[in-house]
Specification:
Blueprint lengths: L2 H15 L3 H13 L7 H15 L16 H8 L3 H8 L7 H19 L4 H7 L7 H7 L5 H7 L9 H4 L4 E5 L1 H4 L3 E5 L1
Antiparallel strand pairs: 1-2
Helix pairs in contact: 1-2
Length: about 190
C-alpha cells in the first residue's frame, strides 16, 4: 500500500465516523501534495508549526539546516526574501516583557541568596552559580543602589558573619578613665 492509498483509507474511515473534520481536511491537503518533492506554502508553515510544537519555541535561522524544515534557498525562491526576513515577518520570536525578565532575574537571585546565606555582596558574587546574575545587576533592575537596599526591598533576611565557623576571635578595646585611671585594656570576648 502506498502512502497516498493509506491516506485515502484514513480519510474514508474518518468521514464514515463523521468526526474530526479538521483532520480530514489536513489529510486531504497532505494527500494532494504527495509525493513530497516540493515545499508548498502549506508544507512550509506546517513544518514550522510542528517545530514549535516539538521544541516549544520558534525556529531560528540555524534550525533550518535540520531535517524537517525547508532549506534557506526554498524560502528565498518561494517568498523572494531571506530566511531571516521571512522568520521576522511570519514567525515573530516571543520575547518576554521587561517586567517578566525582571521578575525571573529577581526570583533566581532570591533563591540563590536563600541557598547561600551570604553575609555580603562580595560573598554572594563569589559563591553564586554562574547562571545567576551578580547582585548589582539584580539591584539595578529593581531600582536599588546598595546591597542593603536590595535585601530590604526583596524582604530578605540579613545574615550575620559567624566567627565560630572561621575560628577568628573578636577583640574589644575598652577605655575607661574611672576604673583604670586612663589606662587602656584589651580583653578578648
Amino acid at each position: 500500500m502506498t502512502r497516498k492509498q493509506a491516506l485515502a483509507l484514513a480519510i474514508q474511515v474518518l468521514i464514515e465516523n463523521g468526526t474530526h473534520e479538521a483532520a480530514v481536511e489536513t489529510l486531504r491537503t497532505l494527500s494532494d501534495e504527495l509525493p513530497l518533492d516540493r515545499w508548498t506554502d502549506a508544507a512550509i508553515r506546517d513544518a514550522v508549526e510542528q517545530f514549535i510544537l516539538d521544541r516549544g519555541r520558534p525556529p531560528t535561522v540555524t534550525d533550518f539546516k535540520r531535517r524537517g524544515l525547508p532549506p534557506h534557498t526554498v524560502i528565498r525562491n518561494r517568498y523572494g526574501v531571506s530566511l531571516r526576513e521571512w522568520l521576522d515577518a511570519q514567525v515573530p520570536a516571543v520575547r518576554p516583557s521587561d517586567e517578566a525578565q525582571r521578575a525571573a532575574l529577581t526570583e533566581a537571585f532570591r533563591e540563590e541568596y536563600l541557598r547561600l546565606r551570604p553575609t555580603s555582596a562580595k560573598g554572594f558574587d563569589r559563591q553564586r552559580r554562574k547562571v545567576v546574575r551578580c547582585w548589582y545587576t539584580v539591584a539595578a533592575r529593581n531600582s536599588c543602589h546598595t546591597w542593603r537596599e536590595l535585601l530590604t526591598k526583596l524582604h530578605l533576611p540579613v545574615y550575620a558573619h559567624d566567627a565560630s565557623k572561621t575560628g577568628s576571635q573578636l577583640t574589644v578595646k575598652v577605655v575607661s578613665d574611672l576604673e583604670l585611671g586612663g589606662k587602656e585594656s584589651k580583653q578578648p570576648v
